[in-house]
Amino acid sequence: MRSHSAAMALLAALAAGVAAAGCTNNPYPQADRDKKVLYSSFHDAPKTLDPAVAYTTAEHVITGNVYDTLLEYHYLARPYRLIPGLAVSVPKGQDLPDGRQTYRFQLRPGVLFHPDPCFPPDATGRRTREVTAADLAFALARIADPAVNSPVIGSFAQIEGFADFSKRLEDLRRSDKAFAALPIREQYAKAGGIAGVLVHGGHELQIVLSQANAQILYWFAMPFTTPVAWEAVAAYDGKDGRDSFADHAVGTGPYRLALYEKQFRFSLARNELWYGTLSTNSDAPGAVFPTEIDPKDSIEGRIDPAYAGRRLPFVDRVTFYREREGIPQFNKLLEGYYDDGGIIKESFDAVIQNGRLSPAMRARGMRLDVTVEPSIFYVGFNMEDPVVGTPAGERGRKLRQAMSVAVDSRQYLELFLNGRGLPAQTLLPPEIFGYDSSYKNPFRQYDVERARQILADAGYKNGIDAATGNRLKLSFDTSATTAAASLQFEYLANSWRQIGIDVEINATTYNQFQDKVRHGAYQIFSWGWLADFPDPENFLFLLACENARSKNGGPNTASFCNAEFDSLYHQMKYLPNNARRADLIRRMLAILERERPWIELYHLEEFVLSHAWLVNSKPMGISYPAYKYKDVRPELRARLQGEWNAPLRWPLYLVLCAIVALTVPAVRTYYRERL
Amino acid sequence: MHWVSDILVVLLASAAVGVCRYVSGDRFWRENATELWRRRPFAIAIVGAYLLIALMDSISWVDPASDANALTSGKPRTIIDRLFVPETFTEASYSAPLASVAFYGGQPLLHPGAHLLGTDLLGRDVVYRTLKGVRVALLIGGLTSLVVIPIALLFGVSAGYFGRRIDDAVFFAMTVLASVPTLLLLIALIMVLGKGTVQVCVALGVTGWVHFCRIARGETLKLRETDFIAAARALGVRDGTIIRRHILPNIAHLVIITFALSFTALVLSETILSYLGIGLDGSWGQMIDQARNELSRTPVIWWNLTGASIALFTLVLAVNMIADAMRDVIDPRTRREG
Hints:
The structure holds 2 protein chains of 2 kinds. Chain A is α+β, with helices and mostly antiparallel strands. Chain A folds into 3 domains: 2-23 and 647-674; 44-234, Alpha-Beta Complex (Dipeptide-binding Protein, domain 1); 375-606, Dipeptide-binding Protein, Domain 3 (Dipeptide-binding Protein, domain 3, Roll). Chain A is 34% helix and 16% strand. In chain A, strand 8 (255-261) and strand 9 (265-270) form a beta hairpin. Chain A is globular and about 100 Å long. By secondary structure, chain B is an all-alpha fold. Chain B has a domain at 138-300: MetI-like (MetI-like fold). Chain B has a two-stranded antiparallel sheet with strand order 1-2. The model of chain B has no long low-confidence stretch (mean pLDDT 85). Classes of the chains: A alpha+beta, B mainly alpha.
């Protein structure tokens, strides 16, 4: 009987142990409970942290916080406005007599790189050094360097000597092996540098452009042009077990990369040496919270006015965990373990009701912020196609107009994006210069009867070609083969079928699709564009003939070429935002309205859910991670997390009782029969 | 090209009538067919109903072009299309089975209470889509079996009967093919061949013949050593004739049973391919794929998945039951009194 008792005692101990364990589902260390740590998630792992190369949102989350830029966007102002970052002021372009233009950036003194072993120790033993204008020139040279493979190399082509430097560097490396073996900085120096990038003293950088271009400033608000320490590039070459510069960020930003397991998690820690902490920079616009606060932002609880003028940053650490699936990520957001996040499609109707947060979400103190992204999603026509394109003349134009009128963007958005988008009237989204909220594109007002009439005017009454008596058959090429995507294309095809046009969907692989585009073997396609910077040029260039896919392999996939449009584009391209530019844009949009190379579908809207403890969270729309402006209230977070995640113990006890109830008779029977 | 499909259907129907006449005229097959019907009447009726639906969805004709209906004029429409009129029998988006208002928003439906299994994201009737999937499933199962069985018979019987080098070569090919993960091979083949009914059938056929080939080889090996084959050889009958007159008739029951069993496996394989985004348009697999995110919606949208799943389950179960009964009835070793 002793062993019988021991078995029962063991069982009871096990039961107690199981009951005591697992009392919390908190995935974070208990020690961080009261710390100012902001928790967020990411889906796609960053591929590179090299600021000259990193281009995706996932990468900008890190590079945008670790690397400072000369200029920044005002966090709260809309339309977007540039403010000085590392630069003392936003420079004004000076027009030179020969048509060139120059910009002079004054770098703030005392800006230090993050402490890193790549730097020799200074007099105080710190392994860092001051940023100079030469570091900015070095960053631009890296963009021009063909070996770096920067995706924005073409965007800086207007800097005088940029392309020449690139070619010179390549030629020297090919012809001279000794040159190719030199450290990168020496190669750049021997190659003569970029003629249009001039360093004056330690803190002035001058850029000379071959022609006036006001939009070049936007590129200095992106991490591509951040100062780069040549020591870091030299030290982290990825050889002999050393880190690669693509995985080892050494910047000047308000946060430094404290932990980087790119497939799983990363963490940004406050940079104690950030330029914003220096007393000399107490008034630097990029180092203090803006004082111009939109009353709407404060009324809606988005921005706390008490923060106006306070020194940045507010949180000590920002930690990101990878979430490959939307549902677990969203569940953790609802449990309070992420401070903000998007809304998954599957739960949208439970979270948003009648365009507002549901009562359940409001009861949790959650806040919804909606912002239109500077984006355009559209259906395009191959303008070189004999049926739908320019060769078809007026008939083709009317066909495109009819197809445009037959597509209901509003219903499309409701069906596929839970209404998370703004039906587009032109390719310009709100907050972009040239956008007119009162404008209604006559060919983007859904009207099936009118579409049928225009189609009949084109000689395709009910979709039957009057010349041949055959039904009009078109093909819609896409590289999306998923079920969700096929439904979207099916919807568009149905829209055209209802006016009699038979549209066949050809879903192929991305490579096959690209091949078709290269050979012009397509009629209709669907595409989207998220602007690099908030300027109309960054949208209108998508339809400039010089960027036609068929001619230059450019982003103008419709291969739309219109002499008048191109002329207006070149006049508008580098103008500052003024009345003349607005007029040029209006005329360009009128051409697009008539010609219909695109059916503008929608501008994407970003829906962000934030918890009550997250302060100063205002979505930017553009890829601009602004964690330095955000703050958290850890005590409120800890309390609400506790309330929302109170362990539900009774199922466990029930199971334990069931186990005991089943086991005890079995054990008793066993001993009775054995003994 | 709809007339090609019509001609094929007529040819297939004629062939089916011919087979029925042959079966009724041959005592062995007539008795077996009667026994099969006695054992599995419901399963046979279900498969018959599926065949009828597929037939109704295979015969199409074009109405004269009319201004009144831009959606349908000039297009071939099948009997199923004419029964459901999918161009007009739609709603704006989701609606629950037999509902009178839309699932989201609560607007009145155009056809209240008429959608037995509700409508999908694009407002299409789920019953109509489910019935349209029948033809695709039967095409996949039937057409692919027509690819698999000749290949498997050719290689299996040749290897089993002739042995030696031919057997080595066939066995090597079988081993190599069996060692490649089937799903990966299928995906690779479809990527190369492209999407389409014939392409998917060929891909499934190329990867699906090994199992039956092994059975045919084994059975032929056994038959090759029997007395009547030895006697035929001794009398100087040519190999081709022996295979045609003695081997093939003796493994006919295996062909029929394998056809039935591989049919269901192929229909299920297509569903998996559709789930991976490389299946056929209009198949149940595509419906299931499109419905997968609907299960995690709040509230749950279950009717799309239900329609396709029930149709698939019923067909596979019925065919499997018939195959099981066939084995019992036709194979003399397993034949027993029902």
